[in-house]
Amino acid sequence: MKRFWHALFRRSRVNADISEEIQSHLAMRADLERQRGLTSAEAQAAAHRNFGNATIIFEDTRQFHFYPFLESILQDLSQASRQLRRNPSFSITVLFILALGIGASTAVFTVVDGVLFRPAPYTDPGRIVAYGITAPIETREFLFGFDYLYWRGKIPAFEAVTSMFPGDQDCDLTETNPARLACAHVESTFLPLFGVQPVLGRNFTQEEDRPHASQVALLSYNLWLTRYGGRSSILGLPISLDNTTAKIIGVLPRDFVMPTLRRFDVILPQQLDEAAQIFPNNGATLRTFARLRPGWTPAQASSALQPVLERDISGAPIPYRKEIHIAARSLRDWQSGDRRQTSWVLLLAVLAVLMLACMNVASLLLARSTSRQRELAMRQALGASRSRLARHAITESLVLGVCGGALGCGLALLLLKMLLTADPNSIPGLTEIHFSVRVFVFAALLSFVSGLIFGALPAFRKPSMEVFTGWRTTSPSRTTIRDALVTFQIAGSLIMLTAAGLMLRTLWQVESVPLGLDTEHVVTAQFTLGRSYEDARLRVLSETLERRLRNQPGMNEVAFADTIPPGGPSRSMPFFAIRIPGRPPSERGVGGMVPWRAVSSDYFRTFQIRLLKGRPFDASDMSTRGIPAIVLSQSLARKLFPAEDALGQRVTLSESGTYIVVGVASDVRNNGLSVAPYPEFYLDRDQFPDIWLRGSSSRHFAVAIRSPLRAQFLESWLRDEIHALEPSVPVDVMTMQDRVRDFARPQRFHAILFSLFAAITLLLAVSGLYGLVRFLVARRTQEIGVRIALGASPTGIATMIVRSALRFTLTGAVLGIVGALLMSRWLESMLYQTSARDPLTIAIVAVLLIVCGIVAALAPSLKAARTHPMTALRTD
Amino acid sequence: MARSSDTLLGALDLLVLKTLAHGPNHGFGVALHIQTVSENLLRVEEGSLYPALHRLERDKFVKASWTQTENGRRARIYKLTASGRLRLEEAESNWDTVSKGVARILRFV
Lengths: 876, 109
Fold this sequence. Notes:
The complex is a heterodimer. By secondary structure, chain A is α+β, with helices and mostly antiparallel strands. Chain A contains 30 helices and 24 strands. Chain A starts with a helix and ends with a helix. Mean pLDDT of chain A is 82; it is low at 471-477. By secondary structure, chain B is of the alpha+beta class. In chain B, a hairpin with a 5-residue loop joins β2 (62-68) and β3. In chain B, α1 packs across α2 (27-37) and α1 (11-21) crosses α4 (82-108). The termini of chain B are far apart. Classes of the chains: A alpha+beta, B alpha+beta.
């Protein structure tokens, strides 16, 4: 290996050495001859005579310092780059196509890498599972604190278990330069289970994880760097979070991510009150993880968990039992869910685009090698071996591939940057670009492989000596390859167009689903206040803001709530905790979670959520102090009171008292459009300020205004009003329509991506077809000339050419339709209320493609029709 | 590696190694030595020494370095290495065998 580099870099030095050595030899001989009495010129001549052929000796000598193979590669490389520079328009076209293909593939790889390939930064991540029960409302495994504690250490499949509090927990850094941070609360066994060691300091102990223990905190690497400058002296320093002081005891590794993949800045002990967990209804909900014992698979662990579930719901009515499952899922599955299949489809689709790009380049190279036949034949006649010629062609394509790859990387980076700048959430699961070594390796691999793919075809063509005979001929097999390439490109483009069409239809379907509320003319604002705010201050703020907003003319409706649709409310209670007086309680753990919102009485009018029965909250509820009012969603009403009218019924919400049902509101689709609406209920925020102050989400504020005024004006006005009261709080102001658009984000992303792919492949197919038709026309110039001379009309000629082009298009289209039908199964999971074999989409796409094919063939056909018989016959 | 020692072709290597066994020398010196000692019987093309020298250098039988000669010319001096000495012994005994064999065949006829 050392000699390899030596050879590569010392090349010129070795050459200089040898020639100096030869010169020195000649000089010494000449010296000697002069001493023997020869003249200077005679001495020189004698020296040369004695020495022999210096050039051959030079070549023979230097071979011992190089690999001849390497030499010829270098030679090939320089020749290839000369060749490419000689024909810049060709090279630029090829590079552009390759950059497009490789760039798109690299960009998509960057997005899906995390989901598909990158291993989690934990020790032996294959043995880590997320386990627990799933219910219709919570499809990600969780356990109640009671169950978690009871089963801890009792499940044979698990070597260890751990838990953390679910959901986002923001916390405020209450020091100079306050900031909003994300805090995760985990058990003391959490880091050991994942096999993660702090890079600095230590994990917290079991004692520090007990309730009321002195607070300790672990920092994320990022927070440590940005706020503490990466100093190791921070250990033991206090950090003030939500006005409580904790001691910094460690820093997590740079590549550590939470298994939930959520952002975090600080990890705190969850300090679960184990004693309190024995009351099932008060217990905590936990995300639970386990490390499998060696030899167990997640599937085996899942079946080993069944007894847990049996015990848990043994008394529950049969229908409820069916909706609850218990399972252990590998961490990767749990993290990516159904994104995995989607990611595969995206990756394969973009690789197909690259493949089509390679085909396009291959046919361009074929066309060029046809025009270079004379040169190649000449070189072969002069003694170049076929393998040398083939190697030369491959080198040239590899140079193209690598240059294209480099451009593609740049393009991918640009593309991702643009996407993320335009909308940071536009790519699901990608918040920052990891343009890592992995991505570069992937891009380099793609470049090489594509270079080989498109280079192989022209490389192994045998230059034929026929070209010297003067009559330009092409053996039939040659166009067959190009015909096939063009046909495949057309087929591929039809498949891609179909996929794009289906994605667009899905997007349209998703966006036209009735939401259960009216989004027009509604502007919303959401903000969250820090945990450091006391209740009294929150209440004053809320009242002041309400007064200011309501006093403004032109605001038809102003509603206040803790949360607003879409998206689930942050507060929920287990279904079994909702009781109907006089009836036995439902079995614990059954029925899933029921989210709820604390809303003002104008909420329903502002969003125009229809009340199917009864009325919204009103002032008269205030007078009947005895029983507060509740509004149920239609599905919750049906679930609680399947037989009778819900109106006027009483329900008890665990410990917070009994409510009377004053209204039943129509369901609102909160949780993504392709999921059925879930049951929820509403409490009156104005009647009982304590309701919205209670619980962890008390600091969420949401304001919605319905007004005929312009949205931009409303947005800035709303922002100003809130900032007048709370200058430093970040406010999220959006029209309701924009907020709802988020629902269709994945569908929109897929539609954009596939439209892009389809556009690229269509462009490639059309340009491939155009090139082929032009080539065919050029080849048939003489024939066409003869035809015209014999009286063929220009229209007749044009029709003839277009018809021959149509043959490729139709064959390609038929192949494409077959391909699209075969691949439809893969797309199904990404579609919504659209058949993957939608005949209308396929028909439209096929017609579009055929029209494009005719247009592409038209220009060369018209040119052919204008051929003058004399010029045609004079061409060689 | 070419097993040139097995054949008569190894003769040039043998001559070069033997010459260098008397002391380090440059290419011209080696050529001159061979010509003089063989009384011009072996008059090889001087240039053809260089491929042999560089091959021996690559195989680490000789070491080369640039030095100044007494009459002020820069020359590349070759010096026998330890493995070069072994190689020389081997080549010499080989040559003995080969030349004896050839001589016998010639005498027999």
